[in-house]
Give the backbone structure.
Amino acid sequence: MNLIFFLLIVGGILIAAVNGNVDVVTNSIVSSANGAVEKVIGLIGIMTLWLGMAKVAEESGLLKRMTDLIYPVIKFLFPSLPKGHPAMGCILMNICANMMGFGSAATPFGLKAMKELQELNEDKSTASEGMCTFLAINTSSVTLIPTTLIAMRAASGSANPSEIVGTTLFATSCSTAVAIIADAIFRAKNKRKKQAEIAHKNHNVHRKKRR
C-alpha cells in the first residue's frame, strides 16, 4: 500500500508538472491538509462521547449485563470466544457505535477487539476465524441512524438530511447479512478442508505403520 500511494502521489506531481499545473497540486495539498486537521478536530467530540460512555458502562456493570444479554448471538458468531472474555465488551461497543453511525468512534473499540482476539489466536501469523468474522461484521455493519452522514448532509445545506435513514438501514442490513452468510460458508469450507487434511495425514500414518 505504501508503494501504491507513493506511485499515485509521484505520478500526480509529474503529470501536473508536464501540464504546467504544479500550482494546482500545491494548493490541493495545502487545502487537503487543512481539511484533514479540521475533520480530526471535529471528530474529537464524538469519540470522546463514546469513549466516556464506554467507561461509564464498564464501571457501572452495564457493559457486562449487555454482554450477557447478547451472549447467545456473540457465541453463535464467535464460537471460539470464551464467555466473559474482554473481547466481547469491545465487540459490543464497536457494534453499538457503528449502529448509531459513529464509525470513527467505533475504530478504537475495533482495534481493542482485534488485539484481544489476537491473544486467543494460536497462529499469530494468520488471522483467526473470530478475527475474520469480526472484520466482516465491522466492515458491513448494520446502521440504524447514520449520525455522521446526517451531520455532514446538514452541514452541506441538505433540505432533508435524515431522509437517508431508511435506505441506509436497508443497504447495511443486506450487506451485514451477506457478510455473515459468506463468513459461515468460508468457515465451513475451511473446516472441511482441515478435516480432510487430518484424515489424509492419519491415513498416511496408518499406511506407514502397516509397512
Q: What stands out?
A: The chain has a mean pLDDT of 81. The chain is about 80% helix and 0% strand.
